[in-house]
Amino acid sequence: MSKKNNVSSPIIYEMKIENNDFFIDKNFIDANDKNNVLTDYPVVYIHNWETEKKEKQYEVYVGESIDIYQRTGNHIKNKTKKGSWQSKINDETWQVIVIGHEHFNKSMTLDIENTIYDYLVGVDSVKQIHNGRGNPQKKYYPDMEKDKIFQKIWKKLNKINSDLFPTIEIIKNSALFKASPFKKLTDDQLRVSNDIYKYLHNAYSNLTIKKSKSDLEQYLLSENILGGENKHNIYKYLDKMDNFQGLIFVNGGAGTGKTVLNTNIFYNISKPIYEFDEEDQLEKIKNKECFLLVNNKEHIILYQEIAKKIGIEEDRVFLPTTFINRMKKNPQKVDIVFIDEAHLLATQNNQGYKGNGHLLDILKVSKYVVVMFDEKQIINRTQLIQKKEIEILKEIAKFNGSYFELNNQLRINGSEETVNWIKSITNDGIINPYKKDSKYDLKIFDDPFDLEKAIKDKNEIHGNSRILATYDWLYKNGEKPEHSNTWNVIVHTKDGKVWKKPWNYQLEKNKRKIKGLSWVEIPETIDEVGSTFTVQGFDLNYVGVILGPSIGYKNGKITYDYSKSKNDKINKSRRFDIKLDNEVEDYCLELLKNEVNILLTRGVKGLYIYAYDKQLREALLEFINNKK
């Protein structure tokens, strides 16, 4: 058996075709005893063909089998079957690649198959993936070798066709890959997904006990939710809520894996092909009418691209307002709605939306609504939700048995101490002494020019690294500034220099080349400054954050002055039709804190900070160097 650090190389072979049948050359098998893994062991295979030669676009099918000849024979027979994926094959460019390894067993081939699908989601040249089964395996022997074997497989595939199988580094920087539904879920995510499946399975099997609004009110009374001076307003709010048993609430902070969990469950229920066991709790909910919503145009593009690739109808992904307006005309409720970044839902009417708030209106037209929520990522007064309302929603879900939490930090690749250091700034406004972390690159800069150079150096090596800033410099979408071609972030340095960079989406770009790409993936944006509007929900390898004039330091604590923010979604007050909170909250302050929280939690490998405020900059430098 191979040593753990010396995993043998996979055998990869491009099958020959003769008389409309694929085969493996006998001379190849006989040439080396190791080559018999293609015929005597379980294998993974990849069908691919070009659909557009000019732009190198491919359709792909990945499978696994204990008999490659029988399986490919069956696929060839189905070429005449109308509507099958085989009927789409372009014979001129059709290729079948078979992959074998001496340690392949059924569990590992299923896991390798799933990982290949996961990576293909992030490949720009892949137009459509067929038969994505979403079949990651649990523990098996030798699962500890799987990642090493896969990396060797992918390197060999890259040599065969670098357009279809680009390098692992390129794929890992793709936003599509990061949101892929084929990700192997963590134990934390798996626990929540299984609980959601169970809740939906019981509901559709009529195993859930129906509860009345009065039952809910009695429960809320027992939990002291209906007390206080605003209890009549709380009753009024509950009267507006239809279908409270349809609410499934997932609470999780930035980087806890909400997006992957959401796309995974959405795909598993709504995908066109799935192999069910008789006892499978998905059996009752497979092929239900599912929709995925997010109130963010960057994410809509991302999810529509994923849906297209994995064979889900394009009209399953919507902005919430579009979905509500369309479904209002539908006499039947839709089955299941998944809402990513639910903290971005509108709670106030605007020019294009008139209603009771996105969430209440979505519940009204749906049987079940799964929300992914983080109150510390609300950054817009039109999305503001009162603390009492958040408490009510969580308690309603607990009453239903449909409240779940994600707790493990998956984005920041640092120690628990590093994660807590960032949290102490964003949650408490306290700068603690920092212990150097070998896994995470955290630096404070005294000059924005040095920060820019550091980020550009990291972008050259690792890709996907950008500069972001708090919204403390003017930007008006659709308007041009008087004395410049672009709206800029401007910093006057201590030595009298002027650092100036345009805000996001200001520089000229090739519209055709960037179609379907998020701001963080567009090459030219390395010379722009991003904001929460372009990076919320996305990862960066290294992030450089400029904390602007609204963020200061006084008497040993970080201060927030929203009067210095140029974001009119933050620095203007908000009234609520139904007042639920007993105390008057300083929502502007909370929104500004949330903005800083989002910016500081984007970096996977590193975080670089420059503070505009001199006192804050000096405090950060002192604490990071452990001088205090």
Widest sheet, order of strands: 10-9-11-12-8-13
What is the second-level CATH architecture of the largest domain?
3-Layer(aba) Sandwich
Question: How many DSSP E strands?
Answer: 22
Identify the quaternary structure here. single chain
The H-level CATH homologous superfamily of the largest domain, spelled out, is: P-loop containing nucleotide triphosphate hydrolases
Main sheet summary: 6 strands, parallel
Count of the domains: 3
Span between termini: 53 Å
**SS strand fraction:** 15-25%
Number of helices: 20
- What does the overall shape look like? globular
What would you call the structural class? alpha/beta
Residue share in helix: 25-40%
What is the CATH class name of the largest domain?
Alpha Beta
Tell me the CATH topology of the largest domain: Rossmann fold
Low-confidence stretches: 272-279
Structure explained in plain terms:
With 628 residues, the protein is of the alpha/beta class. The protein folds into 3 domains: 11-173, no CATH class; 187-406, Rossmann fold, CATH 3.40.50.300; 416-625. The protein has 20 helices and 22 strands. Strands 10-9-11-12-8-13 form a 6-stranded parallel beta sheet. The protein has a 5-stranded mixed beta sheet with strand order 1-6-4-5-7. A 5-stranded parallel beta sheet has the order 14-22-19-15-18, sandwiched between helices. A hairpin with a 5-residue loop joins β16 and β17 (498-502). Residues 272-279 have low confidence and may be disordered. This is DUF2075 domain-containing protein.
